[in-house]
Amino acid sequence: MNTLKDRFFRESKPSGDIRVVNFLKVDNSTTLDLFRYQARKNPVYAEYIRLIGCDPEEVSSPDQIPFLPVESFKTHRVVTGPGKETLIFRSSGTTGHQASLHYILDEKLYEESFTRCFKRFFGDPASYCFLALLPSYLLQRNSSLVYMADRLIRLTGHPGSGFYLDDLQKLSGTLEGLESSGQKTILMGVSYALMDFAERFPMKLRNTRIIETGGMKGRRKEVIRAELHEILQKAFEVPAIGSEYGMTELLSQAWSLAHGIFEAPPWMRIFIRDPYNPFRHLPAGKTGGIDIIDLANRDSCAFIQTGDLGKLNEDGSFEVLGRLDQSDVRGCNLMTAEG
After folding, report:
1. What is the pLDDT of residues 315-335, one digit of tens each?
2. What one-character DSSP code corresponds to residue 203?
3. Which domains are assigned to the chain?
4. Do β-strands 287-294 and 18-23 pair in parallel, antiparallel, or remain unpaired?
5. What is the pTM of this model?
6. For the segment 276-310, what is each residue's pLDDT rounded down to a tens digit?
7. Which among 190, 213, 200 is positioned nearest to 135, based on CA atoms?
8. Which of 6, 52, 97, 105 would bridge 299 by S-S if both were Cys, CB 3.0 to 4.6 A apart?
9. pLDDT tier for residue 17 given thresholds of 50, 70 and 90
10. E strand residue ranges, 45-143
């Protein structure tokens, strides 16, 4: 399958042994080639396509591609082609719910994806101090979010970069020192931990960008994103809060710099599906379920039907409005959704 692999990644050696991988844009030819390859070589995806009566050869555009329900990662080994996993990412889940498992055949794909995406939205990691407030993720094993944060921490090269579990007072002292020195800083945290920190150690931040990753993990009452951002903005006197949108089942992330408006990298594309008909996509401005093409998922499945509720904007950006309640197949009750 080397010819197809070359289609997805251009490789060059500009200096020494450093290899630069340029991810391609989601275009018709590239996407359809990957779809047909995964339809043949991914047993789980192939069976799903068969069950819904789809002929891969009749699919002529990306919006006609069937998206595999994300729940499949909880019950099956979703892998394309032969190969042995070098890493298994596990979702955090909640009590009483089965975790998703993403079998990774080449972790370098994930590293290339998140580092290039980070640089696209924030610039060189080496210009930042990176602080990760991810207690619930640190306590679990094989978190893809912790893996990403760990690599970004290393890429900063800053002695102050690191993880914080539950020592919020130490985090406060670190931030005060970084602020006084004028160091550009990113504080990325799970929502409930950021709220705990905001309540106990409010402070004025001028050189720090706060990025929330969502989720209360049963620790606090769920709030909509706008309310969370308002709380954090007031506590830290910052003009806006950033957000990260990713999941265990994807090797790429979308980022928001402000107001919950997300942008995806070129190798990732968002569709909004009709909540009453999962095989029909809606135009910009309409609310429905989020479907995602992620070309970095070359070795698993690049076409994922999520349980998230969202809306696509005319410029290609999108909003995440909550979750679809799968218990109501008629109207899909909206949980923690705005409006």
Report:
1. 999 999 988 875 333 222 222
2. -
3. 2-74+259-335 (2.30.38.10), 108-248 (3.40.50)
4. unpaired
5. 0.87
6. 999 999 999 999 999 999 999 999 999 999 999 99
7. 190
8. 105
9. very low
10. 68-69, 87-90, 101-104, 129-133
